[in-house]
Specification:
The chain contains 22 helices and no strands. With 537 residues, the chain is mainly alpha-helical. The longest helix is centred in the first third of the chain and has 27 residues.
Length: 537
């Protein structure tokens, strides 16, 4: 061979079997390299494990069929008897034809027989050496795993020690590949919602096969599997969380849910499973409350107004601003979804409910002037001076109420809390002579400064134990008064003042009840005093 190669002449041998193996381009360099790899006995044994061997006359017959391209006939001959050469040659033929099940079956028989192994070693390197044959099987498996892959071989292996060996050899590359993918995903943190979404989807895609293979090698109770599976699941979960929190896309919740549900499916440890479940449940509630896709823009605009509104003081002017700013969006939703749509009624009711809470708060605060201490000598005077302020607040409250009347609401809310508080407010207005006309003038209010909220919901209180809002009527007389009439009227004034003071001392006090309108007796008493004054003009 060396002589031929030296003069550039090609060299071939019958066992090149070009019908089944790729052609060999031999050169002086490749021949020298091969010779160097076969110098040591252990290297000769290693390479011999993956090549043919001839020890019996039957092998000669089988080789003739193999040289002729009749590999099936060669295998039939070697299958007729069990011996070292027959098993070894059947292994090589099976590997040539990618029949790994047959190769593993013959290898388990061959490497499970110490006599065959000793015979194999003596055939290759002679009987003079002292070679340990106990690790030959694992050497054979290591080469197969490197060339073919442990996952392809494992299904065909029945030997328990072989399974364990391949499992250990296969686990590390899988764990390393999953960890590397996790590291890549973590580097996208802080780079925007789309980067996190893409990282999560890539991480899921690139590790899906690896985690399935790892699950085949290790039990889910195995600590090593639990650690890497939980780490993978939690990173995918976090990618979904980061994407959803930073995204402005209408379908962000659904995209994030896809990642979070997958994370939940692969988590094994109880802490990881609980965290995944908690986030999936939270996101599901968000999805359940999402608006129809066609009104996503309007919904976002309304909730932005509610966000700003909830940071402002409980004043009627802010309620009016909220109503005016959200009304165009509410009307747009109504046109798109229809007046009977449940989402439309829900969002409209939410706006009204928030506005009503401010109206109730400011009206009740204005009435608190009448709850002065009965022992305070200035209580009556304060009540008289507070009437003008209360009247002004009631006027603004009724204007806001007329705007709310133009909003559609859920039936239960409108007939319950809204109607009850509207009726109480109407009674308060009539006590002070505030017009309760249903004519609604155009209203406008400057938009409040934006501040970040924590919630857009305000609690609704029930309307119970309301004090009656009795209307107090007065009369006037335009004729001139005599001196005697004047004296009489002065006496009337003094008498009514004494009556009012006694009334206040007796504890006729206006109080707010559970966040709804409060109507009290002392307003009626103050009106008596004012009525007497008018009568004396």
């Amino acid at each position: 061979m060396k002589a031929f190669l030296k003069v550039g002449k090609s060299v071939s041998f019958p066992l090149d079997v070009p019908q089944y193996l790729s052609s060999i381009n031999r050169t002086e360099a490749s021949a020298a390299d091969a010779e160097a790899k076969l110098t040591l006995p252990k290297d000769q044994i290693l390479h011999a494990q993956f090549w043919f061997i001839k020890t019996t006359p039957l092998d000669e017959v089988a080789f003739n069929h193999l040289f002729a391209g009749e590999i099936d006939k060669a295998e039939e001959i070697w299958q007729k008897r069990e011996c070292l050469s027959a098993l070894q040659n059947r292994i090589v033929c099976a590997l040539i034809r990618n029949r790994y099940d047959s190769a593993i079956m013959c290898a388990e028989v061959l490497y499970g027989n110490t006599q065959y192994l000793n015979q194999f070693v003596s055939t290759i390197i002679g009987t003079g050496g002292n070679f340990d044959v106990s690790n030959l099987a694992f050497s054979f498996l290591d080469i197969l795993c490197d060339e073919i892959g442990a996952s392809k071989l494992l299904p065909f292996i029945t030997n328990s020690s072989w399974k364990e060996h391949i499992g250990e050899k296969a686990v590390k590359p899988l764990v390393d590949s999953i960890q590397e993918a996790i590291n890549i995903a973590q580097k996208t943190k802080g780079k925007g919602s789309n980067a996190r979404l893409n990282a999560g989807e890539t991480l899921r895609r690139n590790t899906r096969n690896a985690i399935l293979q790892l699950k085949g090698f290790l039990s889910t109770k195995d600590l090593q599997y639990q650690m890497i599976a939980d780490k993978l699941g939690l990173e995918i979960l976090q990618c979904g969380i980061d994407y959803f929190n930073d995204s402005e896309e209408p379908d962000a919740a659904h995209k994030a849910m896809s990642l979070q549900k997958y994370a939940k499916s692969i988590a094994v440890g109880q802490m990881a499973k609980d965290r995944c479940k908690e986030n999936v449940d939270i996101l599901q509630r968000i999805i359940d409350n999402l608006p129809p896709s066609e009104v996503f823009v309007e919904d976002r605009a309304i909730h932005e107004e509610l966000r700003k509104y909830c940071l402002l003081p409980d004043k009627i002017c802010h309620a009016v601003t909220l109503l005016n700013n959200t009304k165009p969006h509410i009307q747009s939703i109504k046109r798109k979804l229809g007046v009977s749509n449940s989402y439309y009624l829900k969002i409209s009711t939410q706006v009204v409910g928030n506005a009503l809470s401010n109206i109730i708060a400011e009206v009740n605060e204005a009435q608190s002037i009448f709850s002065a201490d009965k022992d305070d000598p200035n209580a009556t005077l304060a009540a008289i001076l507070g009437i003008t302020h209360v009247k002004s607040v009631l006027e603004e409250a009724w204007k806001a109420t007329k705007i709310m009347d133009g909003f559609d609401m859920e039936t239960e809310y409108k007939s319950g809390r809204y109607s009850e508080n509207r009726s109480i407010l109407k009674g308060l207005c009539e006590q002070l002579g505030v017009s309760t006309s249903t004519y609604t003038p155009s209203s406008s209010s400057s938009r409040p400064t934006q501040r970040k909220p924590t919630s857009t919901a305000r609690s609704y209180a029930s309307t119970t134990n309301r004090a009656p809002a009795n209307r107090q009527t007065t009369s006037t007389n335009s004729s001139s008064s005599s001196s005697s009439n004047s004296s009489s009227n002065n006496g009337c004034l003094i008498a009514f003042i004494v009556w009012i003071v006694l009334g206040c001392i007796a504890g006729a006090i206006c109080v707010a009840n559970d966040g709804d309108f409060a109507a009290g007796f002392c307003i009626s008493g103050v009106l008596v005093l004012i009525g007497c004054g008018l009568f004396n003009q």
